[in-house]
C-alpha cells in the first residue's frame, strides 16, 4: 500500500470492516479521555505479518497488565488481522492494532465493571527504508527519560514519547535515546544496540522499556550467525566510546545512528557489524515474502 492509499483503506472497528473515514469512536471512549488502552504495530511483507505470534503475545501481556479483558483468542486476532491485510491488497504495510478499555457512561477515572473493549485495526503505509539511512545513517540525541515506570506495557498513552520525539526533531535528530539514572534504555519508539569495546550490546529488558519484537529478532539472528550479543547496561557515560549505535523497530528495522548529540558515532558512517546484521534482517524479510 502507498502513503496516498491510507484515505482509501478499509479498517476494522468493533466487528465491522469500514472505510477509514467512516470509522468513528464515541467521545466517552476511555482511550480518547484517558489514553486508557494498548496497541501493537506489526510489519507485513507481501501480505505476511512478521513475527505475528510474538506481537500477539505482547498484546496479551499489555492487556493483562492493564486489566483490559482480551476480546479475542490468538486465532481470532490472527483471522481478524488477515482480513485487514486481504481487504487492503495483501502487499507491504504496517498493521496498527489498538484496544481501549471501551466506552463508559461518564468520565470517571474509576473503571466501571463490564465495559466492552473498543477494537480497532488499520493498515498503514510501510515505506521502504530511505537509501540515505543505509548510506549515511541517522542522527540521534540523548534526552532524560520523562516517561512512567511501566514502559513494558505498549500503552497508547504516548504523550511523553511524542514530546521527546518533538524535542529530538527540533534538534535535527530522527530519534532520542532515553536516559534514566545514567543508563540508556531505549528510543522514543525503538530499542537500542551498541558496539562497545568491540562487542555487541543491548540494554537488558526491564519494566522501564518495551520488549521490542525487532530487538528479539536481532538477538536471535545474531546468535544463529555466530555474532555474540550481550544484554547489559549501556551507561550514558560510555556512549562516546561506542564504535556503532543502532536503533531497532518494526517500522524502522535496524537503522544505524551515525551522529549522536551532534558528534560522529565511531567514524560517522554505518558500521561493519550493522551491515552484517542488516543483511541478515533483510534476508529474513525476503524469506518471509517468499513464504519460506
Ligand atoms: N514502536 N520501544 C518503544 C518505546 C516503541 O514504541 C517501539 C515500537 C519499540 C520497538 O518495538 P518493536 O521492535 O516491537 O516494534 C521499542 C512502534 C513501532 C510504534 O509505536 O509505532
Query: For the residues shown, what is the average pLDDT?
Result: 97
Radius of gyration: 19 Å
Rough shape?
Answer: globular
How many individual helices? Answer: 7
Tally the beta strands.
15
Helix/strand structural class? alpha+beta
Percentage beta strand = 25-35%
Biggest β-sheet: count, sense, barrel? 9 strands, mixed
SSE arrangement, N to C: EEHEEHHEEHEHEEEEHEEEEH
Q: Would you identify the regions where 5 or more consecutive residues have pLDDT less than 50?
A: none
Distance between the termini: 22 Å
Characterization of the model:
The chain has 292 residues and is α+β, with helices and mostly antiparallel strands. It is 28% helix and 28% strand. The protein is built from seven helices and 15 strands. The chain has helices at 30-34, 52-65, 74-87, 131-136, 159-170, 213-224, 272-290, and strands spanning 10-13, 16-19, 37-45, 48-49, 93-100, 118-124, 138-144, 175-180, 183-187, 191-196, 199-202, 229-231, 244-249, 253-260, 263-264. Strands 7, 8, 9, 10, 11, 12, 13, 14 and 15 form a nine-stranded mixed beta sheet that branches. Strands 2-1-6-5-3-4 form a six-stranded antiparallel beta sheet. Strand 8 (175-180) and strand 9 form a beta hairpin. The longest helix has 19 residues, at 272-290. It is globular, with a radius of gyration of 19 Å. The protein starts with 9 loop residues before the first strand and ends with a helix. The mean pLDDT is 97. It binds N-(5'-phosphopyridoxyl)-D-alanine. N-(5'-phosphopyridoxyl)-D-alanine is lined by residues 41, 186, 189-191, 210, 212-215, 248-251.
Amino acid at each position: 500500500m502507498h502513503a496516498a492509499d491510507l484515505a482509501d483503506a478499509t479498517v476494522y472497528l468493533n466487528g465491522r470492516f469500514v472505510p477509514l473515514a467512516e470509522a468513528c469512536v464515541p467521545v466517552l471512549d476511555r482511550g480518547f479521555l484517558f489514553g486508557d488502552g494498548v496497541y501493537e504495530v506489526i510489519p507485513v511483507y507481501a501480505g505476511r505479518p512478521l513475527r505475528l505470534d510474538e506481537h500477539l503475545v505482547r498484546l496479551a501481556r499489555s492487556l493483562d497488565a492493564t486489566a483490559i479483558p482480551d476480546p479475542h483468542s490468538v486465532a481470532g486476532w490472527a483471522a481478524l488481522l488477515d482480513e485487514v491485510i486481504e481487504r487492503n491488497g495483501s502487499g507491504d504495510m504496517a498493521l496498527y492494532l489498538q484496544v481501549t478499555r471501551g466506552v463508559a457512561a461518564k468520565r470517571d477515572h474509576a473503571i466501571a465493571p463490564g465495559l466492552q473493549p473498543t477494537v480497532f485495526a488499520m493498515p498503514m503505509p510501510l515505506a521502504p527504508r530511505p537509501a540515505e539511512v543505509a548510506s549515511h545513517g541517522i542522527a540521534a540525541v540523548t534526552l532524560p527519560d520523562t516517561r512512567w515506570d511501566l514502559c513494558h506495557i505498549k500503552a497508547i498513552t504516548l504523550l511523553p514519547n511524542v514530546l521527546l520525539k518533538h524535542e529530538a526533531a527540533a534538534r535535527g535528530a530522527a530519534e532520542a535515546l532515553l536516559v534514566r539514572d545514567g543508563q540508556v534504555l531505549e528510543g522514543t519508539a525503538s530499542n537500542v544496540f551498541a558496539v562497545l569495546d568491540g562487542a555487541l550490546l543491548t540494554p537488558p529488558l526491564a519494566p522501564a522499556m518495551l520488549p521490542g519484537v525487532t530487538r528479539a529478532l536481532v538477538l536471535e539472528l545474531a546468535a544463529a550467525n555466530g555474532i555474540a550479543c550481550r544484554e547489559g547496561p549501556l551507561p550514558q557515560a560510555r556512549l562516546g566510546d561506542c564504535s556503532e549505535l543502532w536503533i531497532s523497530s518494526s517500522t524502522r528495522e535496524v537503522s544505524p545512528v551515525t551522529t549522536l548529540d551532534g558528534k560522529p558515532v565511531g567514524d560517522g558512517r554505518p558500521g561493519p557489524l550493522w551491515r552484517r546484521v542488516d543483511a541478515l534482517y533483510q534476508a529474513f524479510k525476503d524469506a518471509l515474502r517468499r513464504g519460506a
